[in-house]
Specification:
Blueprint: H1 22-42, H2 47-53, H3 59-71, H4 82-87, H5 91-106, H6 108-112, H7 119-141, H8 149-169, H9 185-202, H10 204-207, H11 217-238, H12 250-269, H13 276-294, H14 298-301, H15 315-348, E1 355-357, E2 360-362, H16 365-384, H17 387-390, H18 397-413, H19 419-438, H20 445-478, H21 484-488, H22 490-506, H23 513-536, H24 545-569, H25 579-588, H26 592-605, H27 611-619, H28 626-639
Antiparallel strand pairs: 1-2
Length: about 650
Amino acid sequence: MKTIQLPTINLRRKSKDVLESPEALSASLCAAMSTEQTEKSSNGAGGEKRKNKIRFPDRMRMRGLMKRHKHKPPEVPVVLDFSQNLEQNHLAEASQHLLAQEERLFSSEAADEQVPCTDGEEDRLQKDYEALKLQLRMVIHDSFNTDNQAALKSAVTTILQEEERDHVWEKTAKHERPVWRPMECREIHNTLLQMVVEVRLQRANEEESGADKLSTSLKKDICRMGKRIQNDLLQVVRDVQGCYPPEFDVCNMYTQLYHQAFSMKLQELTQSNTELEDCIYILSWINDYYPKGVLQQKELQSHINSEALGPLLPTEGLKTLEEQYLSHKEAVVKTWLSSALKREEEHWQTGEKPELMDNYYISHLALDVIHLVDGAIKEAVTILGNDDKAQRILFQLSSFLASYKKSIKELLKGKNKDISDILKASLVSIKQLREYIKARENLPEDVKGTWLSTVADLRESCHRYFLSTIHKELKRHYQKLWTQAWFSSSHNITGDLLSALEDQTTRITFLKPACMEELLSQLHTEVMMEYVRRMLKRKVKVKEKGEQETAATFLCEDSARINALFIRIGSKEKWLSNVLPKMSEVLRLQDAGSLRSEIVTLARTYPDISEHQVLALLQLKTNLSSEDVRNIKDSLIENRTSPVSEPPPPFFCNVPVKRMLI
């Protein structure tokens, strides 16, 4: 057998010359006295003489010696053998004992000293190592026993000692190593921990309490496993961790093992068709209870790295559960929204006026819808752990908005006596829906645009009900604009228009101020459009410079009076005050070059103005030649491509004008 140089392990040995105790000293003295008595008897008659020659220690010296040995014994530790250490779970000391024997049998120093190594000694050492392994397994298996912590700490030390010796033997060929090398204690430890975790998770259903009120057996199983993981990880941090050196990273080791075991259990539970109730519960554990309630406990956070853990379910299995939940939730939300709209329609038919709050009518439809959708999305985000996936629920608004638009259309066709009040309340809901949709950052732009267009149609339907009545009353005043009568008495005609306008707007009551502002802003825009439309009909043309300057002045005065009224009653469309003054400059200017420049400026300021509208405006000036008009048109085509940086809202595109040839 080839001898190997092993690390020397110093064992404590007792000297043969050391007197271990007072009792041992007394026994030595008694033995000496007995010898003396024997010699005396063998000497017969000569004994008296012999006896006189025996000198005993002084009595006082003897007492002092005994006293000193009695009260100050040597402090020599008791050394246990391998079996005793093993029996008392002193595994590290037992391991040291075996390592020393291994060193004695296999080291080069032992060969030089020609220490015999028999097969019997090697067999006994192998059996002792097997016994050590067995006891090591038992201690590791009992890791969660709080009374076992000292033994566990000793077991961990043993693992490190044996691992170090394994590394030494790695340098030699396999056939030259002892049969028990490598011991692979760390691998045994890791495998055992995995088994311990799996068994503890299996027994959770019997040993953990607190899930009895849950409705299904699957819920109870998952809840109890989750509680077991939570409690065990806390115990690892509080008790088990202290038995290990940092290099073991034992907290993350246990976390990973429990995570894997929990994952396997969940995969088993979801192999067959899962009821919806159980599906939701599983997703809640995967995305909420487990990552937030278990892994993110304050006491655990500094000890584990939850980011390093993989998913609890594979992608396909998780996707199946998510689709099952989302399909159900979409159907539920669709039903909720349909029911909310149906209740609103039923309330329209009751003959009762809408609810009056803060002196304006309100409808709860939009708030109910928003509350339902937001609540469903919030729940889905928690259950799915993903904002984007939960946004699917928001798309149920598409069918709701289409149905709402249809309902308003049918309402307008009917003869409901309270339609005015109903529409005022509906405008509140429509505004709330528009603001809600605008605020949805995750909504695709094309979808958002479609929904906002539908909401705009809803508002337009309501606005048209009120504005069509106003415009009908103002029609006779509109008809006088840009006529000979207007040219002769602009101030009075415009004044009559404004008086009628103010009278009509004051009749609109119990409308929410924000909605009233939007209605007045639209009316403001439409009145200005109607003014420009009447102007471009060219019923009155101005021939000479004086007439053109007078017309320009009237335009500016009318613009100031109309816009002042609208701003006073609540419109926010201040930009409209510049439209007529800009057009008046075209009437005022006489120089063809200046006129070309002004037309280009007008087109750049209002990019939606058409060539036909520009030509209609020029047609008001009868002193322009056809060549001047063509030159202005060519200049417009060439130079209008650079609009101002922030153009106003569309205006001229909504003003109809007859086409003409030059």
